[in-house]
């Protein structure tokens, strides 16, 4: 298949480069900013197009890799202009949007798909290296679904098919694993910084602990991977945590308190005896933590 990209940002450029590296026929890139098309084309050794209709006329498979807010506008525009033909396949790579965002192309006979890489694309070169180990979610038209599956399989890419009705919840989960994991790490680093351990030293010191926790979660069920005072029901330790935060760093209290509340049901699944679970519920919901007078 001849492949073209509308949008020449990090995602499109990195995936285009990966495709070229793996023998795929990438024709080139179009972007609203022509210099972006040129940069992507140079990086991938393909072509830059200044006219969108000229790119569309040369390809069988179109990846729309614009920002999410402009994907629908883009496909509606090229459909309205009648630049598409019914044999073409239109894909976007958004995690938040389903293939239905491309519905205007389906109305004229095109097959439409969402192919989302579960990968961060902060750096293009690193992303190109990581794509081969990345899982992709796939959903869209039934007619050529097997063709798209074969396309991904031939590239030796891991993928799973999801229900388009679940795309938003899928993206919520992805954000938790990526974006909000950073939030959690930042919270821990802030606490270390407050006691004189700078962020650079803090992340290096905690990295073995972070990796060990992730490895345990991969190897075991989450209920078995959970450790620490909440898993053991150490009421005094947790009460000390909460009192120390409310007295010394009250601005960080609510976050930690909410983490305990959310973790308690997980601890109850396997490791926490019922009497300790009840004591923890009382600690987290029945005691008003106040600043000390000293």
TrEMBL record:
SUPFAM superfamilies: 6-phosphogluconate dehydrogenase C-terminal domain-like, NAD(P)-binding Rossmann-fold domains. Gene3D superfamilies: NAD(P)-binding Rossmann-like Domain, ProC-like, C-terminal domain. Residues 2-117 form the Putative oxidoreductase/dehydrogenase Rossmann-like domain. Residues 135-259 form the DUF2520 domain. InterPro entries: 6-PGluconate_DH-like_C_sf, DUF2520, NAD(P)-bd_dom_sf, OxRdtase/DH_put_Rossmann_dom, TM1727-like_C_sf. This is Predicted oxidoreductase, contains short-chain dehydrogenase (SDR) and DUF2520 domains.
């Amino acid at each position: 298949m001849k492949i073209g990209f509308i949008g020449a940002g990090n995602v499109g450029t990195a995936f285009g480069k990966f495709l070229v590296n793996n023998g795929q026929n990438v024709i080139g890139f179009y972007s609203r900013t022509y210099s972006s098309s040129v940069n992507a084309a140079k990086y991938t050794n393909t072509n830059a197009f200044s006219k969108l209709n000229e790119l569309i006329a040369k390809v069988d498979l179109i990846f729309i890799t614009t920002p999410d807010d402009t994907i629908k506008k883009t496909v509606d525009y090229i459909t309205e202009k009648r630049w598409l033909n019914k044999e073409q396949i239109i894909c976007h790579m958004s995690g938040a949007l389903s293939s239905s965002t491309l519905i205007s192309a389906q109305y004229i006979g095109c097959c439409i798909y969402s192919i989302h890489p579960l990968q961060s694309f902060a750096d293009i070169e690193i992303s190109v290296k990581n794509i081969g180990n990345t899982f992709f979610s796939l959903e869209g038209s039934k007619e050529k679904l097997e063709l798209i599956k074969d396309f991904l399989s031939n590239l030796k890419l891991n993928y799973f098919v999801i229900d388009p009705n679940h795309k938003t919840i899928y993206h919520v989960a992805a954000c938790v694993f990526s974006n909000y994991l950073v939030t959690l790490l930042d919270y821990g680093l802030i606490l270390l910084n407050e006691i004189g351990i700078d962020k650079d030293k803090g992340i290096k010191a905690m990295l073995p602990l972070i990796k060990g926790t992730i490895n345990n979660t991969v190897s075991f069920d989450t209920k078995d991977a959970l450790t620490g005072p909440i898993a053991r029901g150490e009421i005094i330790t947790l009460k000390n945590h909460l009192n120390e935060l409310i007295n010394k760093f009250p601005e960080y209290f609510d976050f930690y308190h909410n983490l305990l509340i959310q973790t308690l049901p997980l601890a109850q699944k396997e490791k926490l005896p019922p009497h300790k679970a009840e004591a923890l519920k009382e600690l987290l919901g029945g005691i008003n933590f106040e600043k000390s007078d000293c």
